[in-house]
Amino acid sequence: MQIKNLMSEEIITVDKDQNLSDALKLLRKHNVSRLPVINNKELVGIISERDIANKLGSSKYESMPASRLHISSVMVKDVITVPEAMQLGEVAKIMLEKGIGSVPVVADDKMVGIVSKADFVTLAVGIAFDKITVKEIMTKDLTVVSPTERLVHARRQMIESHVGRLPVVEDEELVGMVTSKDLMRAFIDFRKNVPEKYQKSQIKEVFVEHFMSSNPTVTSKDATISEVAKIMMETGYNGLPVVDGDKVVGIITQTDILRLIEKLES
């Protein structure tokens, strides 16, 4: 299958000279996690929730409001694109090797669509995926945080582990989840509600339990990939903790499913 048959043709873009507040409004309005960045209709970058969370939590920008940050200072500039005739297995391989969540699709040097991990998940429903269980492809090497750890620590854990979500565990039991979107919103709310002169000291008082999602949707290691894909499609979640009783034994994400599809395609 060529990638043009999977891509989304509805492309929501943001201009590089707009401010971060504009990007946040677009992300929220269209319920997407990343936006291609343009300059005079030319693709010059891409910006994601993870990029925003990382930038807002850095010491260089810790007290700067989103309205004063331009897209160009947050976006990833080296954008990887793929031609519309490329096979989906090849695109999956590129996304996995580069560690990216989406790629713009081009034809005649013009952006004609965008494909994300979520689009690939829609392929993981059917007979072939009914025969593969979560335990066969889930990530077992987990990075977790506790509810009493700080916001800045959760951000650092995500950056160092190259992940977009962390199970929140207390006494070996799952009590919540934290995602890049949660981090992004926590940093934005903090800046809105705390005067600038107090931010440096008070950021240390924002803990994971203040912004985590409680009672997260979970799955079991014996569930099928088809079942998990349906949950992801219905909820929009990028990953689900895998539990055995109350204990977290792994996590299954869109990346794990993308890796499976790439393997099957090749």
SSE layout and pairing:
Blueprint: E1 14-15, H1 20-30, E2 34-39, E3 42-48, H2 49-56, E4 82-83, H3 88-98, E5 102-107, E6 110-116, H4 117-121, H5 127-130, H6 134-137, H7 151-161, E7 165-170, E8 173-179, H8 180-193, H9 196-202, H10 208-211, E9 213-214, H11 225-235, E10 239-244, E11 247-253, H12 254-265
Parallel strand pairs: 1-2, 4-5
Antiparallel strand pairs: 2-3, 5-6, 7-8, 8-9, 10-11
Helix pairs in contact: 2-8, 3-12, 7-8
Structure description:
- There is one protein chain.
- This protein is of the alpha+beta class.
- The chain is built from twelve helices and eleven strands.
- The strands form four sheets. A three-stranded mixed β-sheet has the order 1-2-3. It has a three-stranded mixed β-sheet with strand order 4-5-6. A three-stranded antiparallel β-sheet has the order 7-8-9.
- The two termini are 12 Å apart.
- 36% of the residues are buried.
- The model has no long low-confidence stretch (mean pLDDT 92).
